Amino acid sequence: MTQTQSVITAAKQAANMAATLPPQLRNALSARAEERLPFTIRIAGDEEALCKAVDIRRAAYGRHLPELAQKMVAAEAVDLAQGVIVLLAESKLDGSSLGTMRIQTNRFQPLALEQSVDLPEWLRGRRLAEATRLGVADGQIGKLVKGLLFKAYFQYCFEHDIDWMVITARSPLHRQYAAMLFEDVFPGRGFIPMRHVGNLPHRVMALPVATVEPRWKAINHPLFHLLFELNHPDMNLTLPPPAASRARLERARALTETHAEQSEI
After folding, report:
1. N or C of the chain: less Cβ packing under 10 Å?
2. Is 263 inside a domain boundary?
3. What share of the chain is helix, strand, coil (3-state, %, to 5)?
4. How confident is the model over 14-43, as pLDDT tens digits?
5. pTM of the shown model
6. DSSP letter assigned to residue 61
């Protein structure tokens, strides 16, 4: 294939990808300034990508929660379940892993945090997406990656008609989410032990997707420009093809069975 043919092919692929976006989002993106990043963000749609996500997850948790990090030696069954995606940020320079985040919707099963709490009435029956297992590289690049992973989280929720973004946050990280206008789901209970995060005390916090843009604009939030005024072509949230999804589900079932066998030993 010649260089010209490669450019044409890439342009067609980009056009096809854009055509799959909702009209509202497609129009908004076309009006934004374009910014290129020193890394890419994509959905980990194969085993190699998922292993890279697990590696950076373990390394990041190892800096702050080493005991929990020791258990992150492989993908978890929930990483491969229906309604779940794992994001992976990779350096353009050398392909190294720079960050990851898992997003789970409640379309097929309860959120991970529901192992520990019963959600209040105002969240029941709503479309929810919980972000977990956030981990980024150390240093300045990690801060940039973290901001873009949050943008990917928001964009995924927006594209999939999610009503509320939901997270659990330990101290002092809960302050970062409060600054993003996440509200405390259980204001009278404080920090609650979470089974899916090693029983460590976390606050449960939520943010309505539809209000993020107008509320952030009203207060001139420092992340508003990043989320709503810039287009990042290096962020690709295209879902894996159905065949890959079926393979993921089969592996998830195998992982679940393996974990169950180990718990009986």
Report:
1. C
2. no
3. 45, 20, 30
4. 444 444 555 555 555 556 799 999 999 999
5. 0.82
6. H
